[in-house]
Design brief:
Number of helices: 11
CATH architecture of the largest domain: Roll
Radius of gyration: 34 Å
Distance between the termini: 103 Å
Structural class: alpha+beta
Strand order of the largest sheet: 4-3-6-5
Number of strands: 6
Shape: elongated
Largest sheet: 4 strands, antiparallel
Strand content: 5-15%
Oligomer: single chain
Number of domains: 3
Helix content: 40-55%
Length: 286
C-alpha cells in the first residue's frame, strides 16, 4: 500500500520538531574540516593521514597533532593537484604504480580484518594460560652493590659495611656506578642472566642480608649485598594482553598468506627452462 504525501506529513513534522540526533559515523567521517583552493579535507582524510603519520605524530605534543595532520593534507592536496595538471596520472608508469598500491592496500586491509578475528579474548586468555603453565619458576634477587676501581678499595668498602656501616650510605659515597651509585647502590630485582656472570654467581650464592667479599668483573670490583630473594612473579594477563593480541594477529596474518600460497599455482617465467637431462651415450656396437 502506498502512502500519500499527506499521510507522511505528520512524520515529517515530527522529525522536523525533534531534537537533532548524533550524526551517523559515515556522516561524521565526511565532515569537511578545511578547504584548500576549494578542495575539501574531511575527517576521513584526517583519520587516514593520522594512521600514515603515526610515527611522526607520536613525537609531537597532543595539542600540535591535529594541526600537523591538516598541514600535511594541505600539502598533499596541493601537490596532487599540481601533479594532475602536469599530467603525471596519464603515464603508463603511474597506472602500474597505482595498480600496485591498490593491491597492497587491499592485502593490508584484508589481513588486518581477518587477523582481528583470531585475536579473540578467549584465544588470548588460552595462549596466556598455556604459556604461564610452561614457564619454569625463576629466582630473582634484590641487591645493592658498591663498584670501585681496584681490589684494595673494594676490601676497604667491604670491611666498613661488614662492621655495620649503612650499605646505602657507603655506596652513595664510594660507588662509581653512574646508575645505582646515587641510589645507594640499589639494583632492584633481577634474574641471573641479566647480570654479568661473575656478578650473578656471587649474588645468587648469598642469602638475604649477606654481603659478599670483593668480586671482579669487566666493570671493576664489586661489593654486593642481597636485600631479598624470591621467585619471579608471573605477569598479569591484563599487562601482557596487548602483546598477546599482537602476536595472535601477526600469526593469523602469516597463516593466511601461507594458506593462500599453498592453494595457488605459482609459475616463475623469469627463469630459463631447465635443460632436459642428456641421454646416456650408447656404447658402440662391436
Amino acid at each position: 500500500m502506498k502512502l500519500s504525501r499527506f499521510a507522511m506529513l505528520p512524520l515529517g513534522l515530527a522529525l522536523a520538531g525533534a531534537p537533532m540526533l548524533a550524526l551517523p559515523a559515515f556522516a561524521q567521517a565526511d565532515k569537511v574540516v578545511a578547504k584548500v583552493d576549494g578542495i575539501a579535507i574531511t575527517e576521513r582524510d584526517m583519520t587516514l593521514a593520522s594512521e600514515d603519520l603515526a610515527e611522526r605524530l607520536a613525537q609531537l605534543p597532543e595539542d600540535r597533532k591535529r594541526d600537523e595532520v591538516i598541514n600535511y593534507l594541505v600539502d598533499l592536496k596541493l601537490g596532487a593537484k599540481a601533479a594532475v595538471a602536469a599530467k603525471i596520472a596519464e603515464g603508463p608508469d603511474f597506472a602500474s604504480r597505482l595498480a600496485y598500491y591498490r593491491e597492497k592496500v587491499l592485502l593490508d586491509e584484508y589481513l588486518t580484518r581477518e587477523a582481528k578475528k583470531a585475536a579473540t579474548p578467549e584465544a588470548a586468555k588460552k595462549l596466556f594460560e598455556d604459556t604461564v603453565k610452561a614457564m619454569a619458576p625463576e629466582e630473582e634477587v634484590h641487591a645493592r652493590h658498591i663498584l670501585v676501581e681496584d681490589e684494595a678499595k673494594a676490601k676497604d668498602a667491604a670491611a666498613r659495611v661488614k662492621k655495620g656501616e649503612d650499605f646505602a650510605k657507603v655506596a652513595a659515597e664510594l660507588s662509581k656506578d653512574p646508575g645505582s651509585g646515587k641510589e645507594g647502590g640499589d639494583l632492584g630485582w633481577f634474574t641471573k642472566e641479566r647480570m654479568v656472570p661473575q656478578f650473578s654467581e656471587a649474588a645468587f650464592k648469598l642469602e638475604k642480608g649477606q654481603i659478599s667479599d670483593p668480586v671482579q668483573s669487566q666493570f671493576g670490583w664489586h661489593v654486593i649485598k642481597v636485600e631479598d630473594k624470591r621467585s619471579k612473579p608471573l605477569p598479569k594477563f591484563e599487562d601482557v594482553k596487548p602483546q598477546i593480541d599482537q602476536y595472535l594477529e601477526r600469526k593469523a596474518q602469516q597463516d593466511i598468506v601461507l594458506a593462500l600460497r599453498e592453494k595457488a599455482k605459482v609459475e616463475r617465467l623469469d627463469k630459463p627452462a631447465e635443460k632436459p637431462a642428456d641421454k646416456p651415450v650408447e656404447p658402440k656396437k662391436p
